[in-house]
Design a protein that fits this description.
Length: 451
Amino acid sequence: MTTRTRILTGITTTGTPHLGNYAGAIRPAILASRDNNADSFYFLADYHALIKCDDPLRIQRSRQEIAATWLAGGLDVERVTFYRQSDIPEIPELTWLLTCVAAKGLLNRAHAYKASVDKNLEAGEDPDAGITMGLYSYPVLMAADILMFNAHKVPVGRDQIQHVEMARDIGQRFNHLFGQGKEFFTMPEALIEESVATLPGLDGRKMSKSYDNTIPLFSSAKDMKDAISRIVTDSKAPGEAKDPDNAHLFTLFQAFSTPAQAAEFRGELLQGLGWGEAKNRLFQLLDGELGEARERYHQLIARPSDLEDILRVGAIKARAVATPFLSQLREAVGLRSFATPVQVAATTKKKAAKAARFISFREDDGSFRFRLLSAEGEQLLLSRNFADGKAAGAVTKQLQSGQELDLRREATGFSIWLEGTCVADSPAFADAAACDMAIDALRTALTPAQD
């Protein structure tokens, strides 16, 4: 049986979506959600929105508009789990559990926080002026979003890779502190969106609300046509050849057309198609693609109770995963019912062997290493440096597989080799007898537990 890849996508809930948002993020994400091998979770990141916006009416309006946009665009809630972040109470609780293990130094290195500090310093202000704990601890909330559902992959732009890496670091630390040999959290991977479409706006710059150059996505057909009529073009008259490669009107057309349609439109521009008619062709193309979706959008906006019902069902699906998982995490950290007897570990050799544990960490140079500690906390192994956490994890998994060890003895220490490469070394022991005892402890620690 093939395990489906769980993919988690967060959707910002500030502002009204425009054509650039649709082409760059919404449309490709909806297409990806139709992959039968994907178990897709999509959520409205409305807790995150509170970091950037303190206007309650804007928050409420934006959540509704964005939910309606994704549904109108074709997101199939029968195939995916679609929910509001704020409808999942397990997420803020997990955020606190993760906050308690997240290193302050890690959060100090977050790009958004550092950028705000640098901006304050340049302005001669206090480094933390205007910086809220929401902004500072944002990466922990994002880690909770990801780890709550043990996402395998998280689609992000390059500027968001750090947040996925921080989620890995925080999840790994929780596993080491409370896992007792169990990996509660799957380590997520960033799915880099290399080919995100960036559409030009009316003036040729990147389409953005901050430039006031957007084309509305689901406002009326008249509003869309009026916006398209304001696209800046050169002064060439009808009958004069146009240069499609330097015309952002052609770029917009190409983003929504088939290759054959784009080739035909290019040829007509080269043959002197007038800009007025070219703009009309663009409107007809966009209206043809978005007309039905626009109608669905306005139906959803007019019936907010339907939106609420859809999101409520999504929350039930999401909580069916989150609630039992959080119960395990609460149990792991000791937040247990008083009616549950306290389990005291037996002191037999077998139980002690189960308590031996690997601890992974990251060096200042960015490389990854691990230690193996015995049940009593004695260091048995310290790994060599690995380029990434996945490589280090693969070695620890191989060491725990029960296969015969390639252990190479030295005078007062030993090393472990895999496939002809040294992967870990013991500390130096006081004498040969102490080294022999450590080797015995190592073999016990790496012996798989018997049912």
